[in-house]
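Help needed: design a sequence for this.
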């Protein structure tokens, strides 16, 4: 039996589908139709970068994609995402990021918890959200990645280190660049304020979307330089063909 206050609250502000906004009976995030139209990332995927496709195996039978097989000094330990970022799922992310649908962080955090099982199994010490430059933060009023990190933190009992990794230079939005230019745009714009807080820590970087991974990789480089033991990335959605 639901608590009467919660019932009243649900009546006033019923849970809604994060994608289409239709009223739901339960706070489970997506209505049946949107659930069916969402591409959840499931195995087989590369055991390292999480990219779903036909994987090849290395000499020890580890399932890797060709890019990870070649990369002898990866900056990132593991990367995982919950769903494919396509035209359909884009709506949910845009609403969350730009239209104040901050309450959706709870639902997204549940997706992150499921998608991150391999990462949590390897071991995690802290969650770090990908930071926004303070000017953008003022404009948007919230950092969507920090909201995700705080909600996930409640579900997995790991602390969030917010404000330690900072973006000290403003950049043009990554969407205006492609490929190599994305790496150039983001290079040297992050720093770790207190390296002692990340030293020897196994860090999980949290963000809403992974596109080329340029931003996450740049953050990871900075964190590793500051002494982090390992860096994983966990995002709600991921762009891939
Ligand atoms: Zn829906
Ligand atoms: Zn890979």
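Sure. Designed sequence:
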């Amino acid at each position: 039996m639901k608590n009467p206050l919660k019932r009243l609250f649900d009546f006033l502000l019923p849970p809604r589908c994060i994608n289409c906004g239709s009223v739901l009976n339960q706070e489970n995030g997506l209505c049946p139709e949107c659930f069916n139209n969402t591409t959840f990332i499931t195995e087989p995927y590369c055991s390292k970068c999480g990219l779903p496709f036909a994987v090849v195996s290395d000499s020890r039978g580890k399932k890797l994609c060709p890019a990870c097989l070649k990369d002898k000094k990866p900056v990132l330990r593991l990367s995982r995402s919950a769903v494919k970022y396509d035209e359909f799922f884009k709506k949910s992310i845009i609403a969350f990021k730009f239209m104040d649908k901050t309450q959706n962080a709870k639902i997204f955090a549940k997706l992150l918890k499921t998608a991150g099982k391999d990462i949590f199994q390897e071991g995690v010490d802290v969650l770090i959200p990908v930071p926004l430059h303070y000017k953008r933060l003022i404009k948007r009023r919230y950092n969507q990645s920090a909201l995700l990190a705080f909600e996930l933190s409640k579900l997995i009992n790991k602390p969030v280190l917010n404000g330690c990794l900072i973006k000290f230079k403003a950049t043009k939005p990554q969407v205006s660049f492609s490929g190599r230019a994305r790496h150039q745009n983001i290079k040297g714009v992050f720093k770790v304020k207190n390296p002692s807080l990340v030293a020897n820590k196994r860090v999980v970087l949290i963000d809403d979307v992974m596109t080329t991974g340029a931003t996450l990789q740049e953050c990871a480089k900075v964190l590793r330089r500051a002494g982090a033991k390992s860096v994983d990335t966990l995002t709600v959605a991921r762009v891939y063909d």
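The pocket of zinc ion (ligand 2) is lined by residues 46, 48-49, 51, 64-65, 67-68 (CB under 6 Å).
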